[in-house]
């Protein structure tokens, strides 16, 4: 959806440039629109995928092809891991979310299965993944 919106903004910018070509009107609004549209498209592309890895000492979460933003949570900081169903609206929407009043953060790219990590300091971190049950079991197996 973000890429679609970005393409519309780029198209508006292109239309503005074509409309004002050869006139005395400034073209910077068209160029600005194209620049903003391209930036939105890149951000949407980067936040469209999520990689979660349960390594020997920690769980790492990385967005998109750039791996940014990322978060690493050591097993020493995790109290429990459970498979849950994630509704993005309960976690502030899609993307990397910080919900201070709920002492929670989330990496959400879709509605559906996810892993909820309860941290030892009382905070929660939720990640949407395809096979949440296996992921939660893998993480739980690493906890001491």
In short:
The protein is α+β, with helices and mostly antiparallel strands and 144 residues long. It has helices at 2-20, 28-46, 132-142; strands at residues 50-54, 58-63, 70-74, 78-86, 95-99, 104-108, 112-119, 124-128.
Fold and architecture overview:
The chain has 144 residues and is α+β, with helices and mostly antiparallel strands. It folds into two domains: 2-46; 50-142, Roll (PH-domain like). It has three helices and eight strands. The protein has helices spanning 2-20, 28-46, 132-142; strands spanning 50-54, 58-63, 70-74, 78-86, 95-99, 104-108, 112-119, 124-128. It has a five-stranded mixed sheet. The relative contact order is 0.14. The model has no long low-confidence stretch (mean pLDDT 90).
Keywords:
single chain; 144 residues; alpha+beta; 2 domains; 3 helices
For the largest beta-sheet, the strand count, sense and barrel status come to: 5 strands, mixed
* Low-pLDDT residue spans: none
What is the name of the CATH architecture of the largest domain?
Roll
Number of strands: 8
Number of continuous helical runs: 3
* Residue share in helix: 25-40%
Rg over alpha carbons: 20 Å
Structural domain tally? 2
Work out the strand percent.
25-35%
CATH hierarchy, class of the largest domain: Mainly Beta
Straight-line distance between termini = 42 Å
Query: What structural class results from the helix and strand content?
Result: alpha+beta
Assign an overall shape: elongated
Helix/strand order: HHEEEEEEEEH
Q: Write the CATH fold name of the largest domain.
A: PH-domain like
- Provide the residue-averaged pLDDT: 90
